[in-house]
Amino acid sequence: MPTLEERMQRIEDRDAIRELTSRYCHAVTDGDVEVVVALFCEDGAMVMGDTVHRGAEALRQSYREALADLMPNPMIHNHVIELAGDTAMGRCSVELRFVENGEACVAAGHYEDQYRRVGGSWKFARRDFTVYHWVPLAKGWA
Prior knowledge:
- This protein is of the alpha+beta class.
- The chain has a single domain (4-136), classed as Roll (Nuclear Transport Factor 2, Chain: A).
- It has three helices and six strands.
- It has helices at residues 4-30, 33-38, 56-70; strands at residues 40-48, 51-54, 73-84, 87-100, 103-118, 121-136.
- The longest helix is centred in the N-terminal third of the chain and has 27 residues, at 4-30.
- The protein is globular.
């Protein structure tokens, strides 16, 4: 049975990882590319389909383009985290509201995340984004 200290550390780690994803959402909504990039490890990656953006400069370029075009507002929920020392894996659902080509749109999907503790703080080592739907709000997803 884990010690009380070990159990507390696991609670704190899970809370820090949930806060990491919340900070990500707020930075994306604010359009703050530098904060978004700082939430990733130096060799961190964002994966969307067959497209992989790895490393700070590739992430910076990708987020500059995406945030300027879409003005997204992501919301994370249903977070599950599995800890393994200084690494962890997680899955969380995401709903997005954004503007694409001047039209209000909605999307939903989930992230499969890999996290790594760096200098005492949790960061994204990899985020894999799976899309369920990405449609104009007027059309809907059904």
